[in-house]
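Re: iron/sulfur cluster structure - here you go.
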Amino acid sequence: MTYIVMENCIKCKFTDCVEVCPVDCFYEGENFLVIHPDECIDCGVCEPECPADAIRPDTEPDIEIWLEINTKYAEIWPNITMKKDQAVDAEDWDGKPGKLPLLSEQPGEGD
Ligand code: SF4
Ligand code: F3S
């Protein structure tokens, strides 16, 4: 089991989650973060920290695509362990449906 980042993180990227992870298993894309499923120890402390409510355990229904996305990009994107400024229009994007096509494959800057 692992926790994973889901759709509502896209274009919000608040990054509160990275501050609490005891094993630093978040990786940063241009407009999204992912969790490395093989590094996550399932502690669950990141889930309530996300202002966008975008983190879930992989036991949730219909989560397979997000497990694949987290697995894929955790191998490519740089590690992030410190909070940075959220997207400038994060509040506007919070809760908007259909953000998956907006997911950028470009890596973020990391720490
Ligand atoms: Fe990190 Fe725990 Fe969240 Fe996994 S569940 S990503 S180990 S804070
Ligand atoms: Fe994304 Fe929430 Fe973390 S919006 S960056 S999963 S705090």
